[in-house]
Specification:
Layout lengths: L1 H30 L16 H7 L2 H34 L6 H12 L2 H19 L6 H25 L4 H8 L4 H30 L2 H6 L7 H9 L5 H28 L1
Helix pairs in contact: 1-11, 2-11, 3-6, 3-8, 3-10, 4-6, 6-8
């Protein structure tokens, strides 16, 4: 009897948690279809804010910058982070305490400190050499620096879960280093690399603080645009942008779930 009551209470708590998490998102999505320019009251159903959004060149440019930045930085971060993760695994018997601290530092450091440090660094480089003026290039470098630690830890955890004798078996079969990488390491790391890429992509799309300090006048991303628009008040157009982002994330999640079920 007590066990049944505990399960009911746990189910109620689970549903309350879901409501607490997703009710704000539902409110944003509903008011994106509001006919009047306010989020305080409902004025009827309308698609005017989506039409206005699709005809806004600034928003389209910000979305393009966001996706381009996320894709480029994620690819670079996965390549560099995978090599670092592999190096950590190969030399795990050594004392790598300082290196581990350096890898964890960007993860635990506040974004505003990281962003200011990046900005100061790029300003000094630009003053001395004329290179790395604020823009998409500086944003890519800044994003890669905070994405690499996540990738390295994901790849390292994947290697740790492997049987160490598999590497010896590959050598015993006279596989060259390139053959071991192409036919053993990369196929084994494929799930970890995909997870690291999507995590890096999400971190890049979601980032505001570091992007704000390293962006140029012509490289504003979607979070920077939303921040500037919110300063003038939250309009249904902002809700429409948020709704499209929520729908995109939900679509990716559903596709990933269907793909995993099909593989299973």
């Amino acid at each position: 009897m007590q066990n049944r009551g505990f399960k009911k209470g746990l189910a109620v708590f689970w549903w309350l948690t879901l409501i607490f998490l997703y009710a704000p998102l539902l409110v944003v999505m509903v008011f994106s279809f509001n006919a009047i320019n306010t989020s305080a009251r409902w004025g009827g159903f309308s698609l005017r804010w989506y039409e206005r959004l699709l005809n806004n060149d600034v928003v389209i440019s910000a979305i393009g910058h966001t996706l381009l930045l996320a894709v480029i930085s994620s690819i670079i971060a996965v390549i560099l982070g995978a090599m670092i993760g592999y190096g950590l695994y190969r030399h795990r018997a050594r004392r790598l305490g300082l290196l581990i601290v350096l890898i964890y530092l960007p993860i635990v450091m506040p974004d505003i400190v990281f962003g200011i440090a990046d900005m100061a660094f790029f300003v000094q480089i630009n003053r001395l050499t004329g290179l790395l003026s604020p823009g998409l290039s500086t944003m890519v470098i800044a994003h890669v620096t905070f994405q690499i630690p996540f990738v390295a830890l994901i790849v390292y955890s994947r290697f740790v879960g492997l049987d160490a004798t598999l590497f010896d078996a590959a050598k015993d079969l006279y596989a060259s280093p390139w053959q071991r990488m192409l036919h053993f390491i990369l196929p084994t790391l494929k799930p970890a690399l995909l997870s690291a890429f999507f995590l890096s992509f999400t971190l890049s799309v979601d980032d505001f603080v570091i992007s704000f300090f390293t962006a140029g006048p012509e490289s504003a991303t979607l979070p920077i645009y939303i921040w500037g628009a919110i300063r003038r008040g939250i309009s249904p157009e902002i809700n429409a942008i948020a709704t499209l982002m929520i729908a995109s994330v939900a679509l990716v999640a559903v596709v990933s779930l269907l793909f995993n079920r099909r593989r299973a």
